[in-house]
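Lab meeting, item 3. Inverse folding demo.
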């Protein structure tokens, strides 16, 4: 493999994960289709992409850890309810009709972006809610459902977690994106990738460039999110969700 392909993979991963770190998801909009375009079969591209996006979570974790912005109990709650769904989704990924899944996910993702646009104050300030037993159980069921989608498909599921944390639990965008990047990027995608490794091949030769690009893009995106705050994150989230939705519907 020549140096040109390595550089191209690095640039693709860096750009995709930079915007994903700002928006709280959506790396698959660029990275996953690019791997298919460059010649990988769908399942090989899926597991390779999942492994690469773990580095997004690692890069974001390094930056957010310095801010001490994560509550360990709430983070554990997201993992406990989300991981079983991820494992179920990864195991059943081969049984899901690819195009039907893309259309459904595209419509839902597009709806997220439009909804955020119509709510100018959404996620700009923290307004804690649904922090009782019923609220946690309903929110946890939502996380499990999103986890199934995360394990089975590649594009944009972190965006759903970000919106759930903002809308249901009252986090601001900055807080929600931090939890999404660390827990979905690092733990959910890691669990999904490990499961998929037993079901499909991995393009190991491409991984170093993808991992480096994801790590660098994740760190820089997390840094910009911390420095620039909720306004930039909300605008980026809306652009990415609309772009992901339209891409899934039109491709």
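The presenter then showed the designed sequence:
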């Amino acid at each position: 493999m020549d140096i040109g392909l390595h550089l191209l993979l690095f640039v693709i991963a860096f750009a995709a994960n930079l915007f994903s770190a700002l928006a709280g998801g959506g790396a698959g909009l660029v990275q996953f289709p690019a791997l298919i375009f460059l010649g990988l079969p769908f399942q090989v591209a899926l597991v390779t992409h999942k492994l690469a996006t773990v580095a997004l979570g690692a890069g974001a974790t390094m930056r957010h850890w310095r801010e001490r912005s994560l509550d360990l109990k709430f983070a554990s709650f997201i993992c406990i309810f989300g991981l079983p769904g991820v494992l179920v989704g990864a195991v059943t990924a081969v049984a899901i009709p690819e195009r039907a899944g893309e259309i459904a996910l595209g419509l839902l993702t597009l709806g997220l972006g439009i909804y955020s646009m119509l709510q100018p104050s959404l996620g700009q300030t923290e307004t804690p809610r649904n922090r009782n037993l019923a609220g946690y159980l309903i929110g946890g069921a939502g996380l499990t459902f999103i986890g199934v989608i995360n394990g089975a498909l590649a594009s944009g599921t972190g965006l759903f977690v970000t919106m759930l944390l903002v809308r249901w639990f009252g986090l601001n965008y900055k807080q929600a994106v931090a939890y999404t990047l660390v827990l979905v990027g690092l733990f959910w995608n890691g669990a999904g990738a490990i499961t998929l490794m037993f079901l499909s091949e991995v393009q190991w030769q491409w991984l170093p460039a993808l991992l480096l690009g994801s790590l660098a893009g994740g760190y820089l995106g997390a840094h910009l999110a911390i420095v620039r705050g909720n306004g930039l994150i909300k605008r980026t989230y809306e652009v990415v969700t609309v772009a992901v939705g339209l891409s899934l519907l039109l491709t």
